[in-house]
Specification:
seven-stranded mixed beta sheet; alpha+beta; Aminopeptidase; about 180 residues
Amino acid sequence: MQIRPATAADARGIAAIWNPIIRDTVVTFWPTERSEAEIAAMIDARRRDGFAFLVASDGGAGDGSGVTGFACTSQFRGGAGYARTLEHTVHVAEGQRGRGAGRALMAALQAHATAAGARLMIGAITAENRPSLDFHARLGFAEWGRIPAAGWKFGRFHDLVLMGKDLGANDAARP
């Protein structure tokens, strides 16, 4: 498995992972599937703005077919005051879960975030997504907040859990 920056050529593989999650689960509150063009534009925008957009790949044919997972960051909220607080997304293909891709993607995201001067990483996780809550806890994230009925999908409200990690807790010299 290789962790590398995503390219537009990976959009097909990312869509193959993300769209069933969007369409069939409450793991994300996003209501509509994402097109390959939309994903390619997102990859470009995130990387242009200095954020990470990474894929786990088993090689494949260079057309996105080898993508087994993806992860990205963006600023948690707008405004310069939040510039060092990042929100992240991480998804692994259903048949690839439990094989280390998620852990490797998160390690690479954290390294990128730290190198870019970020202090905090936050995951916004549907409360019903116990596997993601447990995964983040194993990586040192803690529950920092819970927002009741924050999301609406499939005709009902869902709670949102904010899990965070302080990347510079032991580094008093960081700005």
